[in-house]
Amino acid sequence: MFKVHSPLKWEEELAEVSAGDRNTSDLAIASASEAFEEWANLAPQERASFLYRLADLIDKEVPKIARVECTDMAMRYESLLNRVIPRGARNFRAYADLASEYKGRAWESNGTTNLIQRLPAGPTVIITPWNAPFMLATWKVAPALAAGNTVILKPAEWAPLSASILADLVDQAGFPPGVFNVVQGIGEEVGSFLTGNPKVRRISFTGSCETARKIGIEAAKNIVPFTAELGGKGALVVLQDADVEQAAITAAGQYDDSGQVCLAATRLIVADEISEHFLDCFHQNVDKHILGSSFEDATTITPLIHPDHLKRVEAFVDRAVVNGDEILRGGKRLDSQQLFYEPTLVKPASNKSEIVQNEVFGPVLTFQTFEKEEEAINLANSTEYGLSATLFTDSIEKAKTLGSALRAGTVWVNCFLVRDLSAPFGGLGISGLGREGGNYALDFHSDLKTLQIRNSDES
Ligand code: ADP
Hints:
Largest sheet: 7 strands, mixed
Bound molecules: adenosine-5'-diphosphate
Number of helices: 15
Shape: globular
Structural class: alpha/beta
Strand content: 15-25%
Number of strands: 18
């Protein structure tokens, strides 16, 4: 058993969850292996009908899932209720649609017909983080199931509860036994039992670079493909011609949910000429943030997930001060009892400062200015990460040229967090491996095969 605490009331124990071990992991993988053949042999449209039923059940349970998730990990209830949890249902519908529409690909060359087929790959381990547990689990589970794989989901130990609700809903939707399994547990204890099992044929992971490296080693032992969506250190570049007010609103919005978002644009990189105006607008918008219970609609700043995480954020800023970086706002925790950290803005002593180069995963942004646009792109591209970047400009020409020059898996221009589920999603550099989204995820969860047939002489 391991204990779960709510960030909203840390002093109380919220739940006890049974911790998986080697035995539970082996059992779950055996059950997924046994269920695989029958599930893989269903027509994609038949599998899709289970996914649609599951999506309908999620829709009915949105308020309950949102309540549990909010209590478990303190994301804002309003956001969970209206956007994040409903996205879970959308994930299943999107993949049910895509997998059933897929016709394979075919073309003729060298007097032969090439037929490209997708074969389900096998039992799939999915490991998810604590910062959007239900949404990220569904985002990864949906393509795996739609492609014909069976799934073993290991949610994060800091926010494990909604995964068990998902298991209940899968059961209610009538999925055959063994198609979807949940193993709860502490990652370091149970992780390798799941990722190192030779029956597993795909691993899909979202979390830290450090864990991805360990999973990569396990995956390599069995030659198993894995995808990893990892951290980010997104730049928000504001050109001189940009809508400064809009850029400042977007920048201030990076403190929502206390910045515990891998896609967050945490490095503000602003043209010199407009930097004062930008900072004024930014501060005005940050002043509007309301810190409070995640269940209050007005709240924007929520507690951090865990006291250890708060200490980590604190230590980052403390080291920044020692390094000579300048704290422009915030810079400390809010009170000794609760898990709030002030929205913090740091002007780094140099672009090499740790606070610029490493992911904090908290309400901490950096502020840098530039004279030439080339300099802005160099600053934006100067970390090892490459998950997302954001650009504000009034010029469609620059949107294209500078947007293309930004080194990131997703670049938003004059917008933020807009997502089309069929677009590829993932990171460059240490931000990840492989792509999720649309057919990219279905290809990953399949063994792609070429069937090449010689054309008959008459044809
Ligand atoms: P974070 O910094 O977001 O907590 P982690 O990489 O530590 O990121 O955790 C993400 C997920 O990875 C969690 O579900 C965690 O339990 C799991 N995990 C941690 N260590 C391992 C490991 N060695 N093998 C597999 N999964 C792990």
